[in-house]
Amino acid sequence: MTNFVRTLALSFALSAPLLAAIDGTVVNGTTGKPQAGVSVTLLKPGAGGMQQLGSTQSDAAGHFRFDHDQPGGGPQLLQAHYKDVNYNKLLTPNVPTSGVDLEIYETTRSAGQTREAQHLMVVEPSTSQIAVNETLIIDNPSKTTYLNAAEGSMRFYLPPAANGQVRINAQGPGGMPLPQAPQKTDKANLYKVDFAIKPGQTEFQLTYVLPVGSPFTFRGEVAHVKGMQTAPLRLIAPEGVSLTGSDIERVGQEPTTRATIFTVAAARGFKVDITGTGSLPGSQGANASAGSSGSNDESDQPRVTEGDPQIYRHLPWLVALALAILGLGLITLFRRSPVRLPGGSTGAR
Length: 349
What we know:
Blueprint: H1 2-15, E1 22-28, E2 33-34, E3 39-46, E4 49-57, E5 63-66, E6 76-82, E7 85-91, E8 100-104, E9 106-108, E10 115-125, E11 129-140, E12 144-146, E13 154-157, E14 165-171, E15 178-179, E16 183-184, E17 190-193, E18 200-211, E19 216-221, E20 234-237, E21 241-244, E22 248-253, E23 260-264, E24 269-276, E25 303-304, H2 315-336
Parallel strand pairs: 1-8, 9-12, 10-20, 14-25
Antiparallel strand pairs: 1-2, 1-5, 3-4, 3-6, 6-7, 10-11, 11-18, 13-17, 14-15, 14-18, 16-17, 19-24, 20-23, 21-24, 22-23
């Protein structure tokens, strides 16, 4: 019996490290100092969603501690809630669980610190419908989080022909795509999304479909958040699709996908005639609908459907297109520059 007790005690001793503590400090990235009184939650991602393992508050020195993590391995998530914004830190099995820095930031209602880095719209007509996939990437180089529910973090125009159906995902720095609900503004067909723009890069993806037509006139509007530095809207037409209109200017063609790139020259509303069919390589394009909620809701609010937008199917091609746009822009600047050779000479004789 004594040997059994010794064996049992040894087993508990060996398994103790598996139930390690998780501790660290909540650090205010805006001030660079520890932050007291912040709610911190320990979560376990799983097939059934997030399981809450515990909750605590940072003390006067910003410290927090969870005595035991979840046995069995797998990633865990530390989540700090500060001034209406959640800040996450993923703990993978190979990451130390002691002395963890969990960073939070002060918030501001001014969007002046943020800027649109890229604004792309891919138009993919098929024989049954036209899929429109819009990407907006916002940079926040500051040390504060932009959050303004009244103004929103991004705005977009939804054509009436979309019947109020749109799929929206937002992805913060180092985070996962999260479904978002559109909110009406005081202007018809113009909507906003309320999502915190943390320091780093935030990406929005929108997908909706329109009735088929050839030729088809697409009417859109360039929408921006007040105070945010803007970027030009680029229209992407896959091979086989033609876009024409006085409100757009051709930038060039991406050599790999042979997609044509246009810049919307209009400051607000624009009109484009679309002919032909096509989609970017590797995409189901317009063959995949933005979806219907399937509900009997009679309200005039747009219906958001869950899941990744179709644009994620050809995200690598969009990266290539973005690089092509930057390259074309540099070439244009070089050609227009009066200084091309060292010493300020243009090379003219």
